Amino acid sequence: MRRLDRRPTLLRKPRALVADDVDRPWRERALVKESAEVRRMQRSSPAGQRLLGRSAPMEQMRSLVERVARSESPVLVSGETGTGKELVALAIHAGSPRSEQSFVAVNCAALPEHLLESELFGHTRGAFTGASQSRRGLFVEADGGTLLLDEIGDLPLALQGKLLRVLQSGELRPVGSEARRMVDVRCVAATHKDLARLVEAGQFREDLFFRLDVLRVHVPALRERADDIPMLFDHFLRPSRAGAARTALEGLTPEALEFLVGYDWPGNVRQLQNLVERLVVTATSPVASLDDVKHAVGPVRELDPMAPLLRRPMSLDELEKRYIAGVLERVGGSKTRAAEILGVDPSTLYRREKLRG
């Protein structure tokens, strides 16, 4: 079978289209750009090397990604919005035997149903109003490589059966055509939704779910890997500073960093990246204060003060030790003042210090 489009790996993300767009050439109507991230991953080993973070959840996920990458089976990447599911898909592709071939991504929620079918499977000239020329479709674009079906939970039911047939047989039929063709594509699906619940609700085909859910990689939320926040902040700060005309920002005060580590991050890593870019523009001093960071974050919902502790459990002895140390730091080391806040006699603090010291 003749292979098509064997140039360096491309990341293709179609934008939302309207009917008049169908007449435009593929490269004019799709957001097509060469992905420097893919090229860097292709040169790096192991597969998960570009997945930043030293926390236990990230180490575990990186190890899993490296094993998954070597397989040819479909992969389901799950995780909250903004956690970096596409980056995980890129790492899987870069560590796979298909790394020299195309990586193609499509957001299943970004296109209306009548255009999404054409984008996935292609169409012939005259297949529908406005189809003045044939299109290959994304499965053909990804032939020999990897196709990321982002937001797979939003794929219309009518297309789920057609997708299942392609995944099972490797055979597709463009819209308006009687001819069929074979493709060799590894499918990686990503979603922030619970597909099992969608199956129960009749909104997602059970057979397609099981076809996609062969290998699963869950991307941890940022609040579950809070230890990585200082590293990620520095990682985002460097390019943000380079891209800013003038900026004073060089870092954070300890109080500001403590706030970021304890924050809930509903928007995950994407929200942190946006915060850094905002601070680079708004900062008036080299070190952003707690007030600077809170202003940049915006309104913060009230959180259970125990939530950060429960995310990183520790023994009662260690918890007590850290809390006393924190109170002492806040009051400048005054054991008398710290004892007042803690509701204990100052001699208790002196005795504990002696026992530990």
Descriptive account of the structure:
The chain has 357 residues and is an alpha/beta fold. The chain folds into three domains: 10-218, P-loop containing nucleotide triphosphate hydrolases (Rossmann fold, 3-Layer(aba) Sandwich), CATH 3.40.50; 222-297, Helicase, Ruva Protein, domain 3 (Orthogonal Bundle), CATH 1.10.8.60; 314-356, Orthogonal Bundle (Arc Repressor Mutant, subunit A), CATH 1.10.10.60. Helices cover 45% and strands 12% of the residues. It contains 17 helices and eleven strands. The strands form four sheets. A five-stranded parallel β-sheet has the order 4-5-8-3-9. Strands 1-2 form a two-stranded antiparallel ribbon. It has a two-stranded antiparallel ribbon with strand order 6-7. Helix 10 packs across helix 12. The termini are far apart. Residues 1-46 have low confidence and may be disordered.
- Poorly predicted spans: 1-46
Q: Beta-strand percentage?
A: 5-15%
Largest sheet: 5 strands, parallel
Provide the residue-averaged pLDDT: 80
Summary of the model, kept short:
The chain has 357 residues and is an alpha/beta fold. It contains 17 helices and eleven strands. It has helices at residues 26-29, 36-43, 56-69, 85-94, 113-121, 138-141, 157-169, 195-200, 206-212, 229-243, 254-262, 268-282, 290-297, 307-311, 316-330, 335-342, 346-356, and strands at 10-14, 30-34, 75-78, 103-107, 146-150, 171-172, 181-182, 186-191, 215-218, 251-252, 287-288.
